[in-house]
Write a structure and sequence with these properties.
single chain; elongated; 0% strand; mainly alpha; 391 residues; Serine Threonine Protein Phosphatase 5, Tetratricopeptide repeat
Length: 391
């Protein structure tokens, strides 16, 4: 009996302290966790804690503000505006909600109301950089570039000593509007404050690449040096090298990126071309199919697939891919020629001659190729064939 009572009390105290543990999550904890998840861009998690905060303190504006920020991150701008309005009804000095209501209105395309909203946010707190960034963004959308720069530069002055993330957001906005010089300037300002962020060097490289500047190479190389395990940075540098004559170095880097799980179609396409040139047709097929799964609009990848299938004696697969090419480009003589070869090997002579006729019509150079090809050896006495290839 005593043992049973002891067990009961042990269980009671365990449950009691577990309850206390749950109760120890204060509104301050909920707010901090919501903000942390917002910084990490885990908007579903931030929403969970914003909702907890709203239940714990229903008349406190911050829970609604954080819920609005979460909805904004999720791309649900109407829901975000509802939450921001509720926050401002509870506290009319909530310049953060006013600012991000402005951002939400920009996303919805309501630039006039966005500008009005952001003007009020700036008056509420002239030292909050986000409201000036929002105003700059709205003005960029209205093509008022000089006025926009004024707001953006003021925002930079406000955050110069403590918040490089604001610079990143500003540069991203400039980049999205093809204002490359401004984007480069702001990304470099970020780097002055924090020179160990590979993503910023990568983005700076993309800006220089858009400007056709060779400084892109140094920016991409810096990103690779700072994070050797991210395939994206290796791919970017390899892409730059492949277009600037450093093919061997590029292929080596593409292979490193591929081993790390590269997601760029050009990685698989370039390695596929090397495989094809080396006679590794099975590997070429594998890599070209992967490239096409990432980007369906690579006609040369389909032609490489066609040629690989032909050399692997996979004639039906070759015909199938050729027909896809012809559907997209009815003037592609190579697709018709490869079809002619495949049909000839399958002894489907009618289809072979029709395809060859189209290939020659589109490009007379195919006459010589067909005349000297062993694939058409048995057609050498066929009058229709001879008529097609005659000079």
């Amino acid at each position: 009996m005593i043992k049973k009572r002891v067990s009961f009390y042990i269980i009671f105290f365990i449950l009691f302290y577990i309850g206390i543990g749950f109760a120890l999550e204060t509104p301050s904890d909920m707010s901090a966790k919501a903000k942390q998840f917002l910084r990490e861009k885990n908007f579903s998690a931030s929403m969970k804690y914003a909702e907890k905060l709203k239940k714990a303190k229903p008349k406190f504006h911050e829970g609604y503000q954080l819920a609005g920020m979460s909805f904004y991150g999720l791309g649900k701008y109407d829901n975000a505006i509802v939450q921001f309005d509720k926050a401002m009804n509870l506290f009319n000095g909530d310049y953060v909600s006013k600012t991000y209501k402005g951002f939400s209105l920009i996303k919805k395309g309501n630039l006039k109301m966005a500008v009005q909203c952001l003007e009020k946010a700036i008056k509420m707190n002239e030292d909050y950089p986000d409201s000036r960034i929002g105003m700059g963004f709205a003005l960029i959308k209205q093509k008022q570039y000089q006025k926009s720069k004024m707001y953006m530069k003021k925002a930079m002055g406000l955050c110069a000593d403590n918040d490089p993330e604001v610079y990143k957001r500003m540069a991203d906005i400039y980049m999205s509007e093809n204002m490359y010089k401004d984007a480069a300037f702001v990304y470099k300002k970020f780097i002055e404050m924090e020179d160990s962020n590979p993503e910023i060097f990568f983005r700076l490289g993309k800006v220089y690449e858009a400007m056709k500047s060779k400084r892109a190479e140094l920016a991409f190389s810096s990103a690779v040096d700072l994070d050797k395990k991210n395939p994206k940075y290796k791919e970017a540098l390899a892409d730059f090298w492949i277009t600037n004559g450093r093919k061997k170095d590029a292929i080596k880097l593409y292979k490193e990126a591929m081993s790390l799980g590269a997601k760029g179609w050009n990685t698989y396409y370039q390695i596929g071309l090397v495989d094809f040139g080396s006679g590794k047709y099975e590997s070429a097929v594998k890599n070209m199919k992967k490239a096409l799964s990432l980007n369906k609009k690579i006609p040369l990848a389909k032609m490489a697939l066609s040629a690989s299938y032909l050399r692997l004696d996979k004639y039906q697969e070759c015909i199938q891919i050729n027909n896809e090419i012809i559907k997209e480009d009815k003037k592609n003589d190579s697709a018709y020629f490869n079809n002619a070869c495949s049909y000839a090997m399958l002894k489907q002579d009618r289809q072979a001659l029709d395809a060859l006729k189209m290939a020659v019509k589109l490009s007379p150079e195919n006459k010589k190729i067909a005349s000297s090809s062993k694939i058409f050896e048995r057609f050498k006495k066929n009058k229709e064939f001879l008529n097609i290839v005659k000079e």
